[in-house]
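Q: Okay, next protein. This is TetR family transcriptional regulator from Actinophytocola oryzae. I've checked the sequence twice, so it should be correct. Can you predict the 3D structure?
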Amino acid sequence: MILAAARTVFADAGYDRTSMRAVAKAAGITTPVLYDHFGSKADLYAALVEAEADALIGTWEREGLEVPEGSVEQLFRRTIGTIFDWVAANEAGWRIIFLDSPSDPAVAQAHRRRQERATAVLAAQFARVPTLHLSVALDRERADGFLAEAAKWTVNAVAAWWWSNRDLTRDQLVELTADLLWRGLGQVTGETPNVH
């Protein structure tokens, strides 16, 4: 109940303009009761970041595991599609994860932990690719981590960009992201990318 109310209030006003009093009012509790649950606004927001990011990461982690072995492009496109499906259906979470980046250390740490988890999940997906064809010799774990970081930050940037370009559909975003990423990844993974 508290996190649901906080999600709405923070998404509407942003971290800096949101007060604990406003969250308590939206949750139908008093401000002291809110402080019984969360010691500060940063603690509340960090818990919200973790909940939203875990929901997003968990969704595409499960989706990726359902893709049969053998088709790297299918895994890539389904993962990207799942991310943008979640973004489209969770505007408040979208803003909290991709747009609002408070400088408070506790919040920054929550964002950092979830970014690390996202990289680990993506690296595990890249590890399913039998062979990588990179121009630089890297051990496999480091190569998977590199590709995961590059893909993650590209998708993060596209998700943030979509906020101001919502006339584009989810399908268009998936295709644009595939244009940007898959053509290079298709070469790296040994699959020939589909060029439309």
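A: Here is a summary of the prediction. The chain has a mean pLDDT of 87. The radius of gyration is 19 Å.
Q: Noted. On to the next one.
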